[in-house]
Write a structure and sequence with these properties.
- The protein has 20 helices and 19 strands.
- With 562 residues, the chain is α/β, with parallel strands linked by helices.
- It has a 7-stranded mixed β-sheet with strand order 2-1-3-4-5-6-7, sandwiched between helices. A 7-stranded parallel β-sheet has the order 8-11-12-13-14-15-19. It has a 3-stranded antiparallel β-sheet with strand order 16-18-17, with no helix packed on it.
- 49% of the residues are buried.
- Keywords: Iron, Iron-sulfur, Metal-binding, Methyltransferase, S-adenosyl-L-methionine, Transferase.
- This is Tryptophan 2-C-methyltransferase.
- GO terms for molecular function: cobalamin binding; iron-sulfur cluster binding; metal ion binding; methyltransferase activity.
């Protein structure tokens, strides 16, 4: 029997194998596998990590070698991203993921369970498409332990609340959660009390230092989920619509563990670090307390990089960030015009929570306290016109920001408010103006969940065309200049892109990230296999890649050492 006795009490512990199938570089630490390992080991399981990111040129050999020698009771696979979500490139990763799934299935008969935030945006469709046994939507540490325990004890997985089960032939169903509050908020599914075990230098675990050396950043989670309801965002649905706040001491214990291993630059993986600001401040105060009382603490080497919304953000918060070791702030106002943001960037109650003045104040405070800033806009929202887009460019360029970035176009996901609205407007029969996919060969028609026979069918239409080919769905405001003449769903929105480049003065170009036409160029700011990012890691740069963007010409030329 498996219970909660620590793993060391077992002589022959059941084995769970966790696989990272992400082949994109620069490599991003598969934090989810450390989180899962922590809970599985505490429940008495042996856990191996088969990490294919760092061996991507020989992943087939790695899979064959490992599973030729090991017999796990369960294989877990984390799918962090289904695609780049970059509107100009629209690169899909699912084909390489499925190749890896099939290779694992070739070598082991153990059931496979999928998870991860990308997976959780369309879990029923992916359980079916990958042909795997189970899926977990949202936080997986509690569910995976229950599933592994059932399998180790020859009990029925159908007893595991929240588990998604593949019954075959497109029939994918979810076992009900214990309560509706758990189903929606998922707070009870998160380990909030203990640090997550982070290791380096072990071939059977996630090698955090290796990722840091090759990717420039470590990562840290202070809370899971989000109570806000921004129209484009998948996280309240994919992760949970309540904040699952981790114990402050546990978070900082984990930071100390990582910095002691030499992982000094940590990026927060919260939906936004400053939402629920009281908890965020409590974490920062614990960092500051330990730095003040212990001169030998590895936290003195910490450089923190955070995602935030423009508000709440006050001077006390800025001072705490600076003393804690925050190096840079990535803030996402997404626009400067209230008429565009109204109903778009909102709380769970549908109310706006910041304005342009909040963005200005944040940038000013960051400069005052010596922290870098990256300000990002999402252009192409409903109601966007050439006028509103120009106002956004002028407004963000006027800020005292280190870097300003623009994205043109929005990825539509099945359960985001935008995705649901587009499906309702289309109703399975009408082509909604502004819907676009680079690979579309016919009008994009979306049906509502109620119109579909299953969740598999509903989710699939946001990634696949009716013939089964990849067709991720994007949205561009039809009020933009090309909206009236882009009558085919596969047409590219290049006129608006050209306007963006025209509106940014040459003297501002070094600090501005602009979208580019399809294809990798020195100006391309998409993450996946990006030449500039790969060059940064080759030269040993650390920290958020945007912080080095203004020097990209010199760095690509090799004249600026790390």
């Amino acid at each position: 029997m498996i219970d909660s006795i620590p793993g060391e009490a077992y002589v022959n512990r059941p084995l769970v194998t966790l696989v990272n199938p992400n082949l994109v570089h620069p490599p991003i630490t598969p934090y989810a596998l450390d989180i899962l390992t922590t809970s599985l080991e505490a429940a008495g399981f042996e856990v191996d990590v088969v990490d294919l990111t760092l061996v991507r040129d020989r992943w087939r050999h790695t899979v064959a070698t490992y599973f030729g020698e090991h017999r796990p009771v369960l294989v877990g696979m984390t799918f962090r991203n289904t695609d780049t979500i970059y509107p100009q490139e629209q690169r899909v990763f699912l084909d390489s993921h499925r190749d890896i799934v099939r290779e694992v299935q070739r070598w082991t008969t153990a059931p496979i369970v999928g998870g991860g935030v990308g997976f959780s945006s369309m879990p029923f469709a992916l359980v079916d498409w990958f042909g795997i046994d189970y899926g977990v939507k949202g936080p997986g540490e509690m569910t995976l332990v229950e599933l592994a325990t059932m399998l180790a004890n020859d009990d029925s997985p159908a007893k595991v609340p929240g588990l998604i089960i593949n019954l075959g032939r497109g029939d994918v169903r979810q076992i009900p959660h214990r309560t509706q509050l758990t189903a929606d908020g998922r707070v009870d599914l998160v380990n909030r009390s203990t640090p997550y075990l982070r290791r380096s230098g072990r071939p059977d675990k996630v090698d955090n230092l290796a990722y840091y050396e090759r990717g420039g950043l470590g990562n840290i989670l202070t809370k899971n989920g989000c109570t806000y309801a921004c129209a484009h965002c998948v996280e309240p649905d994919a992760k949970g619509n309540r904040f699952a706040r981790r114990a402050e001491a546990a978070v900082v214990d984990e930071m100390e563990l990582l910095t002691a291993q030499g992982v000094h630059d940590l990026h927060t993986t919260d939906s936004e670090f400053n939402l629920n600001i009281a908890h965020s401040k409590a974490v920062l105060r614990e960092i500051v307390r330990r730095k003040r009382t212990d001169r030998s603490s590895p936290l003195h080497d910490l450089r923190l990089w955070i995602y935030v919304q423009p508000a709440p953000f006050d001077e006390e918060y800025a001072a705490l960030l600076a003393e804690a070791g925050c190096a840079g702030i990535n803030v996402a106002p997404d626009h400067v015009r209230d008429d565009v943001l109204n109903g778009w960037k909102v709380t769970g109650r549908g109310t706006r929570f910041y304005g342009y003045a909040d963005v200005q104040r944040l940038c000013d405070l960051a400069t005052q306290y010596g922290m870098l800033t990256m300000v990002e806009a999402l252009l192409g929202m409903p109601g966007e016109t050439a006028e509103t887009m120009h106002d956004c460019v002028d407004g963000l360029l006027a800020l005292d920001a280190t870097v300003v970035g623009f994205t043109l176009g929005l990825r539509a996901f099945p359960y985001s408010p935008l995705g649901r609205d587009l499906a309702a407007r289309s109703g399975g029969t009408r082509a909604v103006p502004g819907l676009q996919s680079n690979t579309a060969t016919a009008p994009i028609l979306l049906s509502t969940l109620e119109q579909c026979h299953s969740r598999v069918e509903y989710e699939r239409q946001f990634m696949f065309d009716p013939m089964g080919g990849f067709r991720p769905v994007y949205y561009f405001s039809p009020a933009l200049p090309e909206g009236a003449r882009n009558t085919r769903s596969g047409d590219r929105w290049l006129t608006s892109l050209e306007l963006l480049w025209e509106w940014v003065p040459l003297h501002d170009r070094p600090r501005v990230m602009l979208p580019t036409a399809p294809g990798l160029t020195p100006e391309d700011n998409n993450y996946a296999d990006n030449p500039f990012l790969l060059r940064l890691t080759e030269l040993g740069y650390k920290g958020a890649f945007w912080s080095h963007w203004p020097l990209r010409a010199e760095i690509m030329g090799g004249t600026v050492p790390a």
